[in-house]
Amino acid sequence: MFKRALICTDFSDSLQRLVDFVPDLAKSGLEQVVFFNSVPLMTSREIPCVDEEKVAEARQKLGVAKSSANIKVEVEVESGRAVDNILRIAKKYDSEVIFSGMPTRSVLNEKLFGSTTKGIAEQAERPILILRPQLMSAYRVGELSLRCQNLFNYLLIPYDGSQSAKNLVKMLQQQVKADPHHTLKTCLLCWVVEGGGRRGIPTADRVQQAEADLAQVKAELEKLDIEVKTEVRQGDPLEEILAAGEQHDISAIAVCSGKGGGLLKWTVPSFTSAILRASWHPVIHLLRC
């Protein structure tokens, strides 16, 4: 799905491990990767300044990654505000996707401590692949190798018939059409029908309508030579989407941020934010729908 990736690490998220898996990343369709670390400015002095020692240390750690015939590797280390640096480097290399680590956390923790990944998601004009540091640190070498080779080949797509959901599918279609490697092999369209009547429509009728709508979306995606599976569940949307991810052999969950209604109506503040906080699966956050 992507050819150029910016891999951001602060060395506490374990994404720096990917420097040893460049050949595996190439098998996922990537042709260029940029490893990036942002070093905070030294504030112990009257005037903030660059911590040259930590910059050199970061370059040494990331410099282990090597280019090959199939993939080009770049290393960038900058000082200053992480989000600003990441956005600038992504623009410099025209990165198509940004890799970022984000631990599971509560809404309160997010408000208290902020999140670099959240900041990127709000400002970046490109997709973000969010990975869990806890898992990245726990994978054995063989497990991480397979993970890197199959980052984008099976996506779970939450779908509810809203305009945001339709736009999410359109964005994925555009990515697939532009991918010469045909990386995305399978996708699961999952529609969660919430319990309880709404506008007097019986649950059984809403399930039937959801199945009919999914069949139409499936037909469109199959034109791109993708295996498409559909599933209608009943219950809490967040819980059911996470359960679907556990029960199917997915690579990641695809989401996007809308502007009211659709996916956003599922939880407060938003379904997308809830997925970003709660999912242990990698999450591909696309542009705003």
UniProtKB/TrEMBL annotation:
Keywords for the protein's UniProt record, in alphabetical order: Coiled coil
Keyword Magnesium (UniProt): no
UspA domain span: 1-132, 155-284
UniProt cross-references to Gene3D superfamilies, sorted A to Z: HUPs
Coiled coil: 207-234
Family: Belongs to the universal stress protein A family.
Protein name: Universal stress protein
Species: Vasconcelosia minhoensis LEGE 07310
